[in-house]
Amino acid sequence: MDASNKSELKCPSSRELRSQKLFGPISIFQTSDVKWSRHLNSDLIIKDKANTHYQAGTEAVDQLEFEKAVSCFTKAIALQSKQAQLYAARAKAYLQLCDFKSAALDYRHVCYLEPQKKEHLHHLAFVYYLQGQCYCDWGMFFEALESFAKAVELKPDVRPYHMRSLACLTALGCYSDALRMVTNWLENETSSADLFTLRARLHHQLNQFVPCYYDLKAALRFNPGCPGARALLENMEQKATSSYQQAVTKALEGELSDALGIITTAVELNPENTQYYLFRGTLYRKLKDFTGAIEDLMLAVEFCNVRAEHSKMEKPEEFKSLEQDAHVQLVLTYNDFAVQCFTQGFYSKATKLLTNAIQEHRDESRLFINRGDCFFRQKEWLFALADYQQAEELDSQNQAIWLRLAIIHNTLGLHSYENLNFQDAADKFSVAIKYNPGVAQFYGNRVKALSKMHRMEEATQDAVCALILDPANDELVPLLLRLFPGCSLSDVISSSMAQTVKTQLKERIQTWRLVGFSPSRLSEKLEDIDLRHDTDRLSETDSESALNQEDVEVGFKPVGYIQIPSRSKEQVNKVVKKLMHQRQSLSYTGPRIAPLCIRHNLEPSARTSNRPYFWRKFGGLGLNCL
């Protein structure tokens, strides 16, 4: 190849020059060597140009020309789109312009380009934090909460981000969400007085005063001098005292339901005050919410013991007085609850409640009386007898106990009679007569038992006593005529033996009434409960002469009120009808038997309807004495 040909290879021909002018530097018209050289040249040019824009942007930042800086960095990014440094520089310029959204986008792109560098996440979180702070300053708390939430998501270990989120939640009124956040801190991090105080304030905003109180107590245990916790606690205690005084006023005015609502507020504001639980328990009892009363009164007793231990007996009299009042009210509540159960037929439940009351106060006879009545209704005769005897030991002169002992011994005597144990039956009837000598049925029952044992003289005296006490009882007339053959009824009644028996009976009843005292009457708040028991008949052939306990009623009235009332209206009607159909002949001229003027029906005095309630006064378990 000659020199001319070599020169042709090195220098482009006129045709090639014309094609380049027409199509430009297209790769299909170029060789690989030309393409590689030009590629290197273009990269250097682009890189140099991008660096020039970057330097210009940096100089603009130094001169505080941030808009110019953003423009320069944008041109550099257009030339070098994969350079994280350029995005970071532009993000900082955006921050100076308070364009947080653009700055966040640039930092997110930086994190994408360089995920291994953790400081970029910190920068992005800080951008969101600044954005949220600006939203807060503008009052846009919802948008601020979103920004702070993004910052917390990126850097969950930075407490200021959490605190700013909490501030936004409280500003938006989302106290429950804020409370959950603080509770999570307390469970997963080290507790402190500030955190407990913060949660207490959130509870206070939600009117959750009980957890608020205990959070304040916890804060003061960490730091006894914490001013925020101390101030809020004192404010709550002052409000509780004011509520207690208002509740007392309402109760004295008779508005018990309103008083209950007010004292409940006081309990929530100061849930460790024994007096408040005692007062509310008493109100619950008056309103017949016995379950709530028992809970409050037991808490009052417990708080008395705890406070006495913590105070090292500095004020023993105060705690002793409160504890005694709480025990008294607890006994009253158990008794009243038992009365309610008794009226509804839940005798077993009433027995358990009275047992609890007796465990709290074993010196009250009327509790044993009431439990004995419950046993009586359950036909647990021996348990009933044991309770009545215990009541008699505590109050030996109470006729209320005597009347019940008479009934239970008569009942046991009837069972002995049915079992053909006539001597034991006669002994039990004798005890019944001893405790209540003014009941004709007791004498009539003993007549039958004595007759079975052929003790006719004693049976005759009892028959005369029964006829004197109950002249309308015609069942005893045949027996008397049989015991006095050949004598008329007038002869029997006018006999010296009958007159002696009548005198002895009158003296016995009079002595019985003088020795005992009238039973106390319960306050008007309690209902009367008739305790009746239908005993089985003595025999099928002698059914009309059997003792029907419906004729001798024991009025079960809570805490020992007892009465043997006269016959009911229905029973009186039956007696009248019987006398009308079985009346004696008009031609009868014999003597009539007049009953003794003996009042064995204990009539209670008139009830007082508006008797005020005396707080914390025992007074015999709520009895109003005659």
Automatic annotation (TrEMBL):
Keywords: TPR repeat. TPR repeats lie at residues 50-83, 125-158. Signal peptide: none annotated. It holds the Pfam family TPR_8. Gene3D superfamilies: Tetratricopeptide repeat domain. It comes from the Eukaryota. PROSITE patterns: TPR (PS50005). This is Tetratricopeptide repeat protein 16.
